[in-house]
Amino acid sequence: MHAYTKTKACLERLVNEHVVPGMSYALLDGTEVDQRVLGAASWWPQRETLQPNMLYDLASLTKVVGTTTALMQLVEQDRVSIDDTLTKFVPAWQDTRVTLRDLLTHTSAIGGFIPHRNELSADQLRAALLQLPVGPGFEQRDHYTDIGLIFIGYILENVYQQPVQTVITQQVLRPLGLTTATFTPKSKQCVPTELQPTGLLRGRVHDPKAAILGAHCGSAGLFASLADLIKFSQWFLSDDDRVLSAKSRDLLQTDQTPQRNLGRSLGWNLLAASDNSHLVSFHTGFTGTILILDRVTHQGAICLTNRVHPTQQNQRFIKWRPDFYRTFLNEAARIS
């Protein structure tokens, strides 16, 4: 396999400079995979060496690995259309303008403050979310939030009459052979995240909305190992028609915003290849996870960290990400 020397150095700098406790990463080039696990799983309450099979809280990678993939299955089966309205599946929602496309591309402009949000029950939080208004900028700009994919989860629940996390497990995780990916991990298998007033989060989802909504949350909650993400990525980059057709996955690498001008696809964000010849699917997770997948060149990068350990006040990681994107895409272009 080609060396990806600069990309590896960029990744490993995070561990060497103590920006994150440890890292599991993989670089994909066709069928070849270069992977490494380094550093610590935790710094607190004591240093613990990171093990290759440990599970990460994927945070918002749940949106693309699970929820978007499951929704696109229904689109392929003509059971759902991207341009259907949310009210068709969730009658409690009142604004008939909002479509699945708006939700998936973060162009719905749904938002607002929910008082005491983290103290609500699951039913109370769902009711509050469904009362949020559509603000200015509807279909004119993209504003990333969890709400769109939570609502996509409600659509999946309406169709399948099961919790969205059960749907993802049955329709995506098991068919792709992601054997350790789970919404209900054992804590000792997991890389810990944040030290909170109630204690260290380990094996419990970091995202507060996901913690409340539980099995009914499609925006976060999935835990998985590097091996699982490699399997998913190899499938995504291939022409294997299990779970979702290659044609549908091609669509996920194109601008799907209402006017096709905001640089987001269905569920996925997009990066321009270094020569601007095409767009590349990518997504991040708040806990410190990154997935970049290029179906044109069959290359990809997976970066799994717990950058929120022991605290989420880690802006060095956030500032580092754009440099990593550029480094990988530039080096991938020279290799391909």
Automatic annotation (TrEMBL):
Q: Which Gene3D superfamilies match?
A: DD-peptidase/beta-lactamase superfamily
Keywords carried by this UniProt record: Hydrolase
Q: Which residues form the Beta-lactamase-related domain?
A: 9-313
A UniProt-annotated Pfam family? Beta-lactamase
* The keyword Metal-binding appears for this protein: no
Q: Does the keyword Hydrolase apply?
A: yes
Task: List all membrane-crossing ranges.
Answer: none
Q: Which GO terms fall under molecular function for this chain's record?
A: hydrolase activity
InterPro entries referenced in this protein's UniProt entry, alphabetically: Beta-lactam-related, Beta-lactam/transpept-like, Diverse_Enzym_Activities
Q: What is this protein called?
A: Beta-lactamase family protein
Q: Which gene encodes it?
A: ampC
